[in-house]
Specification:
about 300 residues; Alpha-Beta Plaits; about 10% strand; Alpha-lytic protease prodomain-like; 4 strands; alpha+beta; membrane
Length: about 300
């Protein structure tokens, strides 16, 4: 692999390639059958491609180092990508509802349903396998863009399974309206997926704190590694993409030297960065006259 292509970039680019392949397979299945349910599945795959392209862009931006205009880095770019993905997902659902209504009024009967479903199932298997990989990879790298994409692919797989069941019922019963009904159910699932992606991404943009479990781990590390200090108060945390910002006030004896206080801070910073991936630690040192003795970590 060339030096300019790392694993994260390779995975993001692979998502684009897979989205193109899946889109082609699903559109072929739709052309074979004329099914509005399969059309809805193919339409969602177009959104998959757009979200993969958006995620690729956002990941590259988020990894840029801090500069004079963005002194805290570009970590939040992935949240903007995830919000856009959620909006596109919702738009796709509304388009599917429109097509379902048109097909219901026309009373169109799908053709070659079994053959079309066989072709579509290949795309479903590909999406399912890639979604599982993206969940693992995105959580390991703490990437909102990859996780949002994985959730979207999961909703796509669920939708495809619903289409499979619905078209089999159409074949078994001859009731053409079931095709439109399945498309409506697919749209409902996509709407829920889009709302979930937008909700989680907006939380990140609003500087959501770490979980209670992670916060307790941070407190334990501070308590264990802050020998020589008196207490910690005003502990605050926030997520920004792969980065976790940790800030707190460290109270030390008034007579301690600057060098000794700096050594305590270095020890705390190193311990937190080992335990919390992507930790950015800011410590404000205060003399013992600032001690609060309440609602704080007493060391």
């Amino acid at each position: 692999m060339p030096k300019w292509i790392d694993r994260t970039t390779a995975v993001a680019f692979s998502s684009i390639v897979i989205a193109l392949i899946v889109m082609g397979i699903k559109y072929t299945a739709y052309l074979m059958t004329g099914s509005v349910a399969l059309y809805s599945d193919a339409l969602e795959s177009i959104v998959n491609l757009v979200t993969a392209l958006t995620a690729f862009w956002a990941i590259q931006v988020s990894r840029k180092p801090a500069d004079s205009d963005h002194q805290f880095g570009h970590h939040k770019a992935e949240y903007f990508s995830a919000v856009l993905e959620g909006v596109l997902i919702i738009l796709a659902a509304l388009l599917i509802l429109r097509e379902a209504w048109i097909a219901y009024q026309a009373g169109h009967q799908p053709e070659n349903a079994i053959s079309g479903l066989a072709v579509n199932s290949v795309a479903t298997v590909i999406n399912g396998a890639w979604a599982m990989f993206l969940f693992r990879f995105g959580r390991r790298r703490r990437s909102p863009a990859f996780i949002a994409e994985a959730w979207h692919l999961t909703s796509d797989v669920i939708s495809s399974l619903g289409v499979l069941v619905g078209l089999l019922l159409v074949v078994a019963t001859g009731w053409a309206a079931l095709d439109s009904l399945v498309a409506v159910l697919v749209a409902g699932n996509i709407l829920w997926s889009g709302w979930r992606v937008v909700r989680d991404s907006v939380s990140g943009l609003l500087d959501e704190a770490v979980s209670k479990q992670v916060e307790q781990e941070i407190r334990s590390i501070i308590s264990a590694e802050a020998e020589g200090a008196l207490e910690v108060h005003d502990l605050r945390t926030r997520h920004a993409g792969r980065a976790t910002f940790i800030e707190f006030h460290l109270v030390v004896p008034g007579a301690i030297t600057v060098s000794a206080a700096h050594e305590i801070c270095d020890r705390l910073e190193a311990a937190l960065q080992r335990a919390v991936e992507g930790a950015e630690v800011l410590i404000h040192v205060e003399p013992d006259t600032e001690a609060r003795h309440q609602g704080v970590i007493v060391l």
